[in-house]
Amino acid sequence: MAETYQNFIGGTWVPASKGETFDSANPASMDEVLGTFPRSTAEDVDAAVQAAKGAYHEWMQTPAPERADYLLRVALLLEERIDEWSELMTREMGKTLKESRGDIQEGIDFLHYMAGEGRRMQGMTVPSELRGKFSMTVRHPIGVVGLITPWNFPIAIPTWKIAPAIVAGCTSIFKPAEDTPLLATLLVKAFEEVGLPPGVLNLVHGFGEDAGAPIVEHPDVRAISFTGSLEVGRMINERCGALMKRCSLELGSKNVMIVMPDANMDLAVEAAAWGAFATSGQRCTATSRLVVHEGAKSEFTERLLTRVGGMKVGNGLEPDVELAPVINAEQKQRVLSYIEIGKDEGAKVLIGGNELTGEGYEKGNFIEPTVFDEMTPDMRIAQEEIFGPVTGIIRTDDVDEAIRIANSVDYGLSAAIYTHDITNVFKAITQLEFGIVYVNAPTIGAEIQLPFGGMKNTGNGHREAGPQALDEFMEWKAVSVDFSGKVQKAQGID
Ligand code: ADP
After folding, report:
1. Centroid of chain to Cα 233
2. Does the annotation count 247 as an active-site position?
3. From the CA of 249, how far away is ligand 1's center (Å)?
4. In the annotation, is 250 catalytic?
5. Cα separation, 33 vs 328, whole angstroms
6. pTM above 0.70?
């Protein structure tokens, strides 16, 4: 029997008020249940918001270095637990052990980074135009915040939200994805273990409409930080607009790698394989378009097919597996239907294209790594996010056209170019409409000290990670102190 887990509200572990539950299953073997979790509703969300409200006043007055110390202590716990948690993550989310480890390491790195922020959190001093007057800016927490996360990075993405919220002095309600509730629970337990005061971080499990939407709607929640699909993000954006809430969105993308004839072909092929198929293409930075110059195309294509043909597909716990299952049956069907759409549109499957069902695959959600050729920029498979192990090659004749093709989508998260020509490099850096640009590096593999986020439909201008991470959770306050002994009126008024 799988263990039953609970919500964490005001420092206490409690079931959902209606007593309903859901299970978390292993994508490589769907009959393995990792745990049973509370299926929460608006009532549970309200209890969590009340707890967060109750804790807020004391927490926002706790000195930032003291708040940050909890992050450091959780980072140290995660370092001890990385092996154990990696295995659990692979069982709950499916990706390979190495990638699960990388996910947790990213969380650790960011906890360290944000812990340092507790001793920075800088404002500015600026000169006043008046004598005997001193002016400065200080940062102020936004209040109670809602953190809604997806399943593809079960530790890293929650950490990207929880850590800055804590150091900023916010209290929060965390609603993890319904596909990865176990790892979310372990993370929250680590914060409990290091003694984070009750109510500062509250965990509410459940499904989007039942448990996510009430967080967005709750009048006492001042800001929402959301990572997930464009469809849900758009809805949240609209609601937050109407309710005058701050909202930070990190949504889908249609990332691109440009390959020019002077590219180092060993690196370009490996980067394409890693960028397209790591995490089975279920990263918002996955390489789903390869825009390849005519002068590189035959060699690149041939070598990519050899590389992809050698990939072992299977359970992410096996050390030689490179392509693990996709998260659930619904996602598998979605990816397979996109492969059919691509074929109907006239793109040619060079390799893969099928679900895997034989021995070792019968209980999981396995799809062959799939590469299309003859993809054109206007096709749906070249425009829409697939979020699976599918990529496609678009041919081009020159770098300007390649950049135009790269930019011809509604998204703009991550773009890469492989070239050694300095003109191509700077055209790419200056003209690509993407929040993250790589030169001779794959589209995936963001580092936490850089801002993460995208242009166009990928988001709404906010960035996570990097020094910008606090902006989601803090207001700016302009403070002036007049010690002139007079009532001074600015702008030269006597
Ligand atoms: P994905 O396709 O990656 O699962 P979703 O956007 O469906 O992306 O889900 C991302 C997160 O948003 C999950 O935690 C999910 O439960 C939550 N979610 C889904 N629908 C809603 C909604 N209507 N309101 C708030 N949160 C939601």
Report:
1. 13
2. no
3. 12
4. yes
5. 13
6. yes
